[in-house]
Structure formats: C-alpha cells, structure tokens
What we know:
It is built from eleven helices and eight strands. It is globular, with a radius of gyration of 21 Å. An eight-stranded parallel β-barrel has the order 1-2-3-4-5-6-7-8, surrounded by six helices. By secondary structure, it is α/β, with parallel strands linked by helices. It folds into two domains: 8-237, TIM Barrel (Alpha-Beta Barrel), CATH 3.20.20.60; 238-273, no CATH class.
Amino acid sequence: MSGKRVSVKTIAAMKDRGERIVALTAYDYPTARMEEMAGVHLILVGDSFQMAVMGKETTLGADMNVLVAHCRAVKDGAPNTLVVGDMPFGSYQPSDEIAVQNAVRFIAEAGADAVKLEGGNQAAISRVKAIVDSGIPVMGHIGLLPQSIRREGSYRVVRADSEEMLLKQISDLEKAGAFSAVLEMIEEDVATRISEASGIPTIGIGAGRNTHGQILVVNDMLGMNGDFNPKFLKKYADLHTVIREALNNYVSDVAGGAFPGEENVFKGKGNNR
Ligand code: KIV
C-alpha cells in the first residue's frame, strides 16, 4: 500500500474485486505508523479507546475532544491509510445537526477521512444521511452495539432471529449513503447472508469468515490484556508477558544498581553520545 492513499473508493473497489479489507483500531501515532507499514487499509480510532486505553467497563464515557486529539495523532502516523473517527456516545444521538457538527470536527480538526456511528434504526439512518449529505463519508455499525449496553444489559452474539432486521438495516445504510458497515458479533451464517446482500463492504468483528473485511481492537490482538480471551479474538503477540518481563527487569536493574551501566553514562569529552 506504500505511497498510495486509501480512500472510500479504494475500499469499494476492493469489495468489487473480491479483495479482503484489513482493518484495525489505533489510538496513537506510533501504532498507526506501524499499521500503515504493515499494509492495513483502514484504521478506526474506536471509542473502544475508553476500554482498551482508559480501562473502563464500557465505551460510554468516551469523550469527543479526547477522540479527536487521538484521531489527529493516528492520521499523522498513517497519512495514506483510510482513518475513520468513531463518534462517541452522545455525539450524534441528540439530533442530525449535532451529529453533523461533531462529524465535521473529526474531518476538520483531526484530519480523519470518515466517521463511524452505531445503529441501523430510523434515527441512526437519519444521522448517516445528514452526515453524508454534508460531504463526509460514514461507516455504519450493526449487530452488537456497545453503546446500547444500558438498554441490552449484556454483550451478546446476535443470532438468526435478528436476520430480517439486519438485512433491512444494511440496505437502509446503503441507501443513506454509508460507504461500509461494521458487523459486530453476529453468527457466521447470518453475517454471510448480510454480506452477500450488501452493496457496500462489510467489515466483521466476531462475525465469521465471509464478511468483506475484518477488524480487531489492536490492543486485544497484540495481547496487551492477558485476561481477555473471547472466542472471536486471535492474539498475534503476547505483549502483556513481553512488557511485564521488561518492566520486571528494569525494576530489578535499577534496584540492584545494574542500570545505568558504563555504556549509559556521560563522561568527559568524546563520550557524550
Ligand atoms: O470502537 C471500536 O473499536 C469498534 C470496533 C470494535 C469495530 O467499534
């Protein structure tokens, strides 16, 4: 991907060619930079920040100002990747007008390429249309909706009894102008049929093998949290262990006087680098 900027058109063309779209979250400059180097097509500055970085139980308290600041860092780190700002809870629910105002902030202040919002009901579709009409690409998000946790009571896999509703939602999102949609925690067979029916690329998380692309929370796939092991997750590293070991070594080196060593200290002329 190096040098060529990924746009929403690129993502649409990849779906048409049957090429899988690779997406990940990122919340900071160095991670975004490494993701772009690795060839990730789409980076979501997710409101999962609130759980992955801030240590909270839900995404509900994610703050618009904080996400915009992190989105800026991510875009700086990944200038050629499609960067999507995730609209936090409260930033689009009140009205179409507030939704457009906050979507504009992601584009104008953070340099994002698009925004994402959750839901496929009438209100969500109205927000998507209003934002798209203002010239901003929107990614939908259906299936499990983390921002609706207070209504739902728990995070559950979405099953076949919701298929008809989900098929309507993906069709409504497409008609409203969304350029793609996240399918979260949906039985594989159901997600497959939604993806087949969809004219826009579907990006799955816990939605099986047949969506047009996949997304994971980067902290989860890097194994930052040793206790988080849901079925849909594959860990590509065990950073929890790596970082714990490094920290333990640092603590014992400083406590025991092994750091700084001879090679780490400044002395007279000629030894200052
Ligand atoms: O906030 C987020 O990271 C997300 C992904 C799980 C799709 O919405």
